[in-house]
Amino acid sequence: MAIGNNGIARWNGLGTGNEQTESEVRTLERVIFHIDVNSAFLSWEAVYRLHVLGDTHDLREIPSAVAGDVKKRHGIILARSIPAKRYGVRTGDMISEATKLCPTLKLVPPHYDLYATSSKAFMKILREFSPCVEQYSIDEAFCDMSETIALYGTPVVAANLIRERIKEELGFTVNIGVSSNKLLAKMASDFTKPDRVHTLFPDEVPRKMWPLPVGDLFFVGRATKKKLKNLGINTIGDLAQTEVSILSSHLKKHGELIHDFANGIDVSLVSSQTVANKGYGNSTTIAFDVEDAITAKLVLLGLSETVAARLREDNMLARVVAVDIVDYEFNRCSHQMTLYEATNGTSEIYQAACKLFDQLWNQAPIRHLGVHTSKVEEDSGMRQLNLFDMEKNEKLAALDKAIDSIRDRYGADSVMRASFVGSKIYHMSGGIPPEKRKVNYKDVKF
Prior knowledge:
By secondary structure, this protein is an alpha+beta fold. Helix content is 37%, strand content 21%. The strands form 4 sheets. A 5-stranded mixed sheet has the order 8-9-4-10-11.
């Protein structure tokens, strides 16, 4: 490696063992990695079962999947092994569909505490290689290696060091995409899997990216893909070479964006700063069809508990509350209202949710309910004076604060409203239920 007169790192590419040797000398101002855990939930389950529970079967080597609970109607595939993928099993498939494709498919339940712990360990290693790590999801991240790449020689060498370190210390594999911007790094990490390092520098785009189906391009979803197909655009290369004006006329600004992406252009930066929430919400799929308002409002109360608690934890207030309903035939409807003043109080959010529900529900059996908030702002401690509700709201705020304190210390189930006693509805609805948070393998068959 050498440093040019302009201070920009220049290096000769080295062989990687799983990526073609870079023959030319590259000059880059930025070096960006995208690191993606291979079949994350399933890999983390496999590692835990092998190294902690002593299982003799590696879930990654057989047709297997992490899936929700059919009885509670969360019956979809959350992650699947590569052998399961060969049968056509896809993430998001219903369990019934997946088992038709692969009758021998081994299904295991999700355990999110394990996944959170594994993710933290994964991110910790990445931060040892770069001070600028942007966690993109629980199982993937971007690393800006521009300031630290000189410590390792070449980008490919550094990427392989990270890949091997994660495999050796944590037991699971990752794919790493290497490029000069986030888009190309992410595209590269999706090339051949698992346990690979791939480069996709701008000069490699025509050879490596343009032949791919247009639906493989980041930000080209099903609807956009269909519109592009109707225009005769089938590959990323077709998109890259299409006039921007044609794309703009059919797709507006989105057409310009994906045209840039198809040409490998992306100016977004890796940011280690956590982006503030624009809204807080939670929803739940109910284990049975809800046919009465009393039960539905009990679900809304549980959702309001979790949403309000998250607002208070982040010291935020919400000015808009919304409710959405999905009925037994998967018809969805939603409605929202603006509050008199911004709040993070459980009772105020719940009352608004109930009012919206009464306006919205058409008596059809309910499968799914959600409570969402928006137009959030930081809680400055100041409140709009309301002569009639001021004393009541002060008491409710003190009650919420006391309940939060108890739950923080003794757990979410340490305090429960009396209306939930003996109910089939969990008092802190939405998010991850208790049975999925903690690893409990007593009843699991290996």
